[in-house]
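[recover] target loaded
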């Protein structure tokens, strides 16, 4: 029996959608879809993340280990792209936790109880940027439909509810719920459909030039705002673009 054909790569999926849809005419923007992590929600300071974990699970962490651990945590999810390029971690909570522990085991070296504590408090230190809610309110006032899309293998709705984002959006599409991860065009299509719009009526805003551009194959205009440091992410640019 012949081996099954390999699954298409993300690049092949994008190419297929471009071939099928061709080029689109320009339409006014009627809706905006946002990535969540590092676009609307800041992952926070690694030192504060570690402090929160140590408050739950006290450990003696030598200064040199702490410095290395903070640096490692700050780039943790960027490292995940290397060990898990297909983003399997974002299709289930169990896989997300597994990949997290694989990363830490290859890192500075801490015991499992502290690693567990760091993971448990992770969402506690994620917070909406200071300009997130004002920008979303301005878009709603302008009559925009608003959607969220995320490669998320964690219960990120907790953050959206806690920080007042949920009431300001019309749809939330999460990878672990739909079974697709960005940049697969299908997850972008699902978000567009949830807004009741056409791809050519939508602006996508994200932080990744790899994950967040998959919707361009459908005709979605795409704005990339790379990860920034600090409480303000420059999201007023989105409001100005839509108003223009």
């Amino acid at each position: 029996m012949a081996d099954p054909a390999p699954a298409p790569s993300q690049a092949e999926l994008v190419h297929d959608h471009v071939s099928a849809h061709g080029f689109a005419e320009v339409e006014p923007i009627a809706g905006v879809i946002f990535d969540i992590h590092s676009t609307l929600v800041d992952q926070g300071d690694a030192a504060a993340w570690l402090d929160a974990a140590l408050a739950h699970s006290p450990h003696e962490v030598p200064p040199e280990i702490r410095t290395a651990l903070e640096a490692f945590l700050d780039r943790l999810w960027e490292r995940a792209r290397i060990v898990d390029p297909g983003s399997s971690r974002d299709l289930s909570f169990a896989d997300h936790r597994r990949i997290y522990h694989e990363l830490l085991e290859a890192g500075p070296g801490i015991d499992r109880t502290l690693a567990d504590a760091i993971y448990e408090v992770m969402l506690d230190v994620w917070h909406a940027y200071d300009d997130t809610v004002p920008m979303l309110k301005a878009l709603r006032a302008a009559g925009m439909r608003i959607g969220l899309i995320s490669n998320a293998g964690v219960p990120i709705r907790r953050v959206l509810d806690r920080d007042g984002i949920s009431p300001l959006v019309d749809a939330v599409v999460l990878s672990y719920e739909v079974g697709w991860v960005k940049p697969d065009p299908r997850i972008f299509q699902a978000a567009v459909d949830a807004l009741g719009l056409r791809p050519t009526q939508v602006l996508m805003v994200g932080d990744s030039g790899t994950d967040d551009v998959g919707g361009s194959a459908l005709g979605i205009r795409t704005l990339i705002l790379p990860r920034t440091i600090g409480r303000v992410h420059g999201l007023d640019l989105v409001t100005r673009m839509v108003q223009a």
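[recover] notes: The two ends are 59 Å apart (CA to CA).
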